[in-house]
Structures are given as structure tokens and as C-alpha cells.
Amino acid sequence: GQQVMQIPQYQHVQEGEDFTTYCNSSTTLSNIQWYKQRPGGHPVFLIQLVKSGEVKKQKRLTFQFGEAKKNSSLHITATQTTDVGTYFCAPYSGTYKYIFGTGTRLKVLA
Amino acid sequence: DAGVTQSPTHLIKTRGQQVTLRCSPKSGHDTVSWYQQALGQGPQFIFQYYEEEERQRGNFPDRFSGHQFPNYSSELNVNALLLGDSALYLCASSLGPQVEREQYFGPGTRLTVT
Question: CB contact, 8 Å: B3 with chain A?
Fold first, then answer.
């Protein structure tokens, strides 16, 4: 079955530093969603990527879909304490199902 | 405009018991998916309901069943509870049958099995 790995598993950064999480799939993806889950909270939708090589930006967040559509990344520029949480990629696995990755837990030190 | 709501917030059950969790989707949404999230893990897809039918199921045993009502609300039932069923159960709603849709998650129900 489809395997989805996110790296790193944990990341501690100083406030103001950049952060990147990578999502790798064993199969080619049709689309991928990204979610953020604050500690004690629920996943909140961030973005959806569909096209090969697609890059989308939301303020300090940059999302990228690999050319081969097997990987994706989320980059945060100049992290803030409000960025704390776990970031999940969720590739579409076919037949109405999204498979969530293992997540990257981000801690921002003020 | 109410978002996704779930009840109860917390629940403590004993091994072997049965539990029913409830979800009301975001206003206007007709598709409901259920996920199980163990501590420190990503959400695992249980099943999805659309037009009162289960149209996809994840790798969960038959002890997990569900239902969707004509008003699009949904229930998740778990029979013969095991200790390993302890988790946060999340409901997510989306609009329409297309899969490329943003999912809105509810706050979840924290189930503890003792």
C-alpha cells in the first residue's frame, strides 16, 4: 500500500529561523493536502496542490509539489511562536481517501 | 455559520463496551469522514459517508461501523471496545462528491478505554 513519510519528525527552531518539512510518497500522487494541528487542537486545512511542480504561497508559508508528484514540501520563512504545531501532509490515495503522513512537530523557541 | 461539531467531547468506557460518537457537519456540507488519531500519530482514515452511503473504508475491523442521516449528520459506532481503541476520533466534513475538496475537522471526541 501507499507509504507516506514526513521528515523531520521533530524540529525545534529559534523564532525568526526558517523551517521546512518534507513529505515523500512511494507512489505518484494526484493531489496532496497540507494541514496544521495545534497542540490539543484538530487539523486545519492549509492548502491543496494538484499540478506537477506547483508552488503556492500563503504569507510566510510556501508549499511545493514535486515535478514527479511523489513528494511535497512546506517551508515557513521567519518562524513565529504562532507557527507551533504539527504539520501533516495528506496525499490523496484514490477512492475518496486521504492518507495522512506521520507529521512534523514544530516547536518555536522565543 | 457553525463549523463541524462533535459530541461528546470526552468519554471513558470499559473494555468490551460499545460507544457511539456523533458528528454534525459544517453547514451545507454533505460528505463526512471519520478518522482515528492515536497520541503522537497522524489521523487514520476509518470511513467516509456521502448520500447516506459508506463509499470508502480504511483498514479498520467490522467493530467500527457508521451511519449518515438525511440531514448529513453522522454517527460512529465501535463495538467490543479494546484498550487500543483509546484515541481522538475526528470527524471531517466537505462539500460534494468530488475528492479535491478541503476537509473541515471537528474538535474531536477523546475516547479512553480502561
Answer: no
B41, B45, B108 member nearest A99 (Cβ): B45
Q: How many CB atoms lie within 10 A of CB A96?
A: 19
What is the C-alpha separation between A31 and A90, in angstroms, rounded?
A: 9
Mean pLDDT of B20-49: 95
B1 has pLDDT over 70: no
Q: A23 to chain B nearest CA, in Å?
A: 13
Element holding B111 (H helix, E strand): strand B109-113
Chain centroid offset of residue A11 CA: 13
CA distance B42 to chain A (A): 5
Length of chain B: 114
- What's the pLDDT at B100? 76
List of chain B residues whose C-beta atoms are within 8 Å of the C-beta of residue A35: 105
